[in-house]
């Protein structure tokens, strides 16, 4: 269900462009950029290339001045250098400064990518992003992160937070259905495809239960990788996520919430205890670990074999998926089996969790899996910020922004109402909702930044569990909505 073709940015030379002129469809996300007619006169000519008004508006500053980005799409080493330096800077800032820890390194990496793409330093599409990061880095990162997902350990060590997290996951799914049916009419009326909206709802379900890795998995599953719809959804996703984190921080200090929930961790910090412990724990969490060359080799081998096996297994079921309209219950059941069990990411998740839970002794000896996996996901976080140019935000993101807003609000209501009914702590509700919307790294980062040291471990555990649930829930939502 890809919308759009080739590189949507205009340019010349080493930055090839597929002209939008004459394309008889709408790259819409509600409110949006209309059909570009071939008869429309060009607004500018540069180097023999005619640019329409829409193309000029979508170009970055340097593309307008030079006709191409500063670093060309085929300069893989240059782009890899920018990406790796940006990720290193994000991690450094997150671990060095309190303000950066509150924002989180993942958001910083994404913002850096957005800024450089909008200025025109880096292109929005290239082999490094589309084939290497999306096709290799992300699938390898998921099993390494899921090695921490021992289901027995999660239930034992994070009981209360896990309960709220699961309630919030139900809220995310409910929000996806509510948002889809509330916005479907407006989306299709503006020329959009209901299937694309369903796919975005599926992507956001994965993201708002697990994290960006689930967003990536669902985007690839629905064929939206690298499209304007995925770019607009990325903008809406991360904008709402960043704003919501500040809202959650504000909740911790509001009398409205403090008078209705118990808050022992907040009280501990305000008494002057716990903060230094949290700071020490944060420093120790990503400190130097006992890791050998054998550990690196075993981790990489495990990730590659899991992805390979998942592709083979998924290939056995994918032929059952219907190519046309389902006309009977039997066809519908086979279609469900083909789409769900034919998903590579469902099997990556399943195999990894089974290994982490039932072979925990062996898996725990593979030191460095969390560090390697997290670094690979940081590279991915940089890449998903690249397509989000300002023109896309202004013209194609508004409706997706509403969709994500609805989903975040419903998740928040489920988490806080559930915590109130079960008489759980305010901090548990805040961190569990953060783990739903942002993932394990942002949830643990907030716990550290607030000084809630005893919640850092549970935050990581339930957040990693979200990676598991997110792929299943996102796939189900996509199937049921007709993505």
What does this structure look like?
The chain has 483 residues and is mainly α. The chain has one domain. It has helices at 53-58, 61-66, 76-96, 98-103, 105-119, 127-146, 151-157, 159-189, 194-207, 212-221, 228-253, 255-258, 264-270, 275-285, 293-317, 329-340, 344-358, 360-364, 369-385, 390-396, 398-422, 426-437, 440-450, 456-481, and strands at 44-46, 49-51. Helix 14 runs antiparallel to helix 23. Mean pLDDT is 76; it is low at 1-49 and 277-283.
Summed over residues and divided by their number, the pLDDT gives a mean of 76
Specify the overall morphology: globular
Report the radius of gyration as a whole number of Å: 22 Å
Helical fraction: over 70%
Strand order of the largest sheet: 1-2
Query: What about the largest sheet?
Result: 2 strands, antiparallel
**Which spans of ≥5 residues are poorly predicted at pLDDT below 50?**
1-49, 277-283
Q: How many extended strands?
A: 2
In short:
It contains 24 helices and two strands. By secondary structure, it is mainly α. The longest helix is centred in the middle third of the chain and has 31 residues, at 159-189.
What is the fold's blueprint, element by element?
Layout: E1 44-46, E2 49-51, H1 53-58, H2 61-66, H3 76-96, H4 98-103, H5 105-119, H6 127-146, H7 151-157, H8 159-189, H9 194-207, H10 212-221, H11 228-253, H12 255-258, H13 264-270, H14 275-285, H15 293-317, H16 329-340, H17 344-358, H18 360-364, H19 369-385, H20 390-396, H21 398-422, H22 426-437, H23 440-450, H24 456-481
Antiparallel strand pairs: 1-2
């Amino acid at each position: 269900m890809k919308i759009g073709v080739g590189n949507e940015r205009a340019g010349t030379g080493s930055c090839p462009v597929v002209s939008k002129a004459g394309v008889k469809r709408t790259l819409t996300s509600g409110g949006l950029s209309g059909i570009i007619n071939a008869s429309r006169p060009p607004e500018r000519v540069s180097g023999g290339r005619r640019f329409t008004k829409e193309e000029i508006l979508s170009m970055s500053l340097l593309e307008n001045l030079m006709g191409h980005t500063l670093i060309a799409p085929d300069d893989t080493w240059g782009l890899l250098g920018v990406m790796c330096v940006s990720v290193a800077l994000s991690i450094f800032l997150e671990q060095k400064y309190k303000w950066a820890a509150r924002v989180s390194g993942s958001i910083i990496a994404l913002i850096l990518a957005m800024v450089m793409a909008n200025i025109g330093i880096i292109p929005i599409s290239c082999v490094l992003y589309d084939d290497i990061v999306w096709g290799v880095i992300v699938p390898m990162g998921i099993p390494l992160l899921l090695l921490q997902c021992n289901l027995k350990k999660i239930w034992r060590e994070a009981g209360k937070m896990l309960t709220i997290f699961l309630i919030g996951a139900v809220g995310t799914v409910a929000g996806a259905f509510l948002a889809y049916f509330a916005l479907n009419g407006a989306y299709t009326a503006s020329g959009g495809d209901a299937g694309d909206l369903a796919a975005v709802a599926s992507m956001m379900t994965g993201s708002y239960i697990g994290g960006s890795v689930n967003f990536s998995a669902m985007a690839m599953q629905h064929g939206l990788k690298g499209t304007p719809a995925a770019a607009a959804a990325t903008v809406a996703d991360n904008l709402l996520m960043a704003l919501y984190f500040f809202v959650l921080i504000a909740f911790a200090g509001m009398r409205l919430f403090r008078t209705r929930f118990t808050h022992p961790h907040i009280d501990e910090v305000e008494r002057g205890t716990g903060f230094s412990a949290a700071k020490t724990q944060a420093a120790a969490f990503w400190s130097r670990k006992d890791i050998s060359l054998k550990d690196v080799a075993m981790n990489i081998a495990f990730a590659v074999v899991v992805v390979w096996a998942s592709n083979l297994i998924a290939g056995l079921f994918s032929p059952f998926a219907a190519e046309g309209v389902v006309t009977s219950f039997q066809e519908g059941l086979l279609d469900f089996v083909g789409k769900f069990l034919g998903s590579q990411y469902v099997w990556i998740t399943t195999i990894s969790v089974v290994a982490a839970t039932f072979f925990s002794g062996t898996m725990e000896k593979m030191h460095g899996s969390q560090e390697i996996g997290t670094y690979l996901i940081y590279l991915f976080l940089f890449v998903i910020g690249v397509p989000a140019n300002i023109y896309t935000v202004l013209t194609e993101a508004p409706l997706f922004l509403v969709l994500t807003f609805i989903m975040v609000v419903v998740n928040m209501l489920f988490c806080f109402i559930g915590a109130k009914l079960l008489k759980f702590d305010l901090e548990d509700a805040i961190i569990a909702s953060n783990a739903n919307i942002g993932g394990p790294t942002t949830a643990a980062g907030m716990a550290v930044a607030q000084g809630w040291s005893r919640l850092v471990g549970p935050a990581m555990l339930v957040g990693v569990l979200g990676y598991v649930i997110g792929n299943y829930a996102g796939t189900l939502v996509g199937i049921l909505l007709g993505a």
